[in-house]
Design brief:
Blueprint (H helix, E strand, L loop, with lengths): L3 H25 L3 H25 L4 H26 L5
Helix pairs in contact: 1-2, 2-3
Length: about 90
Amino acid sequence: MTILPYALGICLIAITISMFMCLIRLVLGPSVIDRLLALDTLFLNATCLVIILGIYWATTNLFEGALLIAMLGFVSTAALARYFTTGHVID
């Protein structure tokens, strides 16, 4: 009997709760900066969720999806931060 499935189940529940809390902050955030940070944290939690699911299902196919989510999260956060500071994304 291993403890890994139980630990991964607890991780999945914790990440899901964290994603729900980030979604609440994204919708109700008092400022644009709070919403941007909530979006960035939501991307991070989505990446972690996909990685945990890949470990739980014992497949390596989901790790490429996690990499794509991480890259998309970085690019979108950088683009939105630039848009909110300067008013445009591309010079």
